[in-house]
């Protein structure tokens, strides 16, 4: 408990907020890129401690939220097949597709199972040689090493009945797309500590120089976040645009070299569609050609499925920070965690779910 208490020290948070107020001389707009950061900020009311002239904008760093509708429809189509055991982390089951969710497929008799590691899915493939086992590989750089290891393990075992439906996305190209937009108003970023634990901080240096914005790597506890905000405001006030690491207990410049090597061994970068945003060049991971046999979209010929996002759901505008969840006409009425219109209301890291859980109306 001592560790948790240390990073949830209310007095330390208030001191950081006071320090921010004492040095800020003009309005600034920062984006916390990760949905986990958004939930902590709202849960602990950190935004309410900050000066009114300092605006926090919520970014697209929720892997469930940015998985495009067509990938959900592909998952639903594959999971409904009798020969398939479809496996996933639990937060993907309730994400609505254009017609139904994976949870509905399960209720209709589909063999859809929640697993806690992609290696659990590999084990299922070993135990069920007459069934096709598919794992829904969703996530940012943080989960890529585990998914890469699952494919490598299946390759080592020579399992012909294991595949992944891959929807991996990358943070730096998303930041590039946000800052490169003509209507961008973001002046500084809080980068996600767990991503940098794997990938390090090097990929953010070119972005900081290109757009002249400070990028601060932070953790997810209140003290972590307020320290990151303070460092970012200090840089803005000085006119500096560097990458700073406020999460040194876990994230390092080089990241995790072994994990990075494994990811690059198994995956290549590719263009990837993001829910409500569109295709961001070079923002995804796809299996390398030599491991194409483990690609579920190829094996089940589901890549042809294309779906238009529902117009009532403004997930794209929320994920890009253009609007807050409370500005959506369906929020809290037509769209709730029990009956979601889109992924941001379902995911444990979704901004809409956070606003709903913490009664935020503005």
Description:
- This protein has 362 residues and is of the alpha/beta class.
- It has a single domain (1-359), classed as Rossmann fold (3-Layer(aba) Sandwich), CATH 3.40.50.11740.
- Helices cover 39% and strands 19% of the residues.
- The chain contains 16 helices and eleven strands.
- It has helices spanning 2-7, 10-23, 35-43, 63-66, 69-79, 102-107, 118-127, 144-157, 171-180, 193-199, 205-211, 222-238, 257-266, 296-299, 315-319, 351-357; strands spanning 28-34, 54-61, 84-88, 112-114, 132-139, 162-169, 188-192, 215-218, 243-245, 267-274, 278-287.
- The strands form two sheets. Strands 4-3-5-6-11-10 form a six-stranded mixed beta sheet, with helices on both faces. The chain has a five-stranded parallel beta sheet with strand order 2-1-7-8-9, sandwiched between helices.
- It is globular and about 65 Å long.
- It starts with a helix and ends in a 5-residue tail after the last helix.
- The relative contact order is 0.17.
CATH superfamily: HypD, alpha/beta domain 2
- The coarse silhouette is globular
Write down the overall mean pLDDT. 94
Strand order of the largest sheet: 4-3-5-6-11-10
Helix content: 25-40%
Major sheet size, sense and barrel closure: 6 strands, mixed
Domain module tally: 1
Number of strands: 11
Tally of alpha and pi helices: 16
User: How far do the termini sit from each other?
Assistant: 33 Å
Topology at a glance:
Elements: H1 2-7, H2 10-23, E1 28-34, H3 35-43, E2 54-61, H4 63-66, H5 69-79, E3 84-88, H6 102-107, E4 112-114, H7 118-127, E5 132-139, H8 144-157, E6 162-169, H9 171-180, E7 188-192, H10 193-199, H11 205-211, E8 215-218, H12 222-238, E9 243-245, H13 257-266, E10 267-274, E11 278-287, H14 296-299, H15 315-319, H16 351-357
Parallel strand pairs: 1-2, 1-7, 3-4, 3-5, 5-6, 7-8, 8-9
Antiparallel strand pairs: 6-11, 10-11
Helix pairs in contact: 2-12, 7-8, 8-13
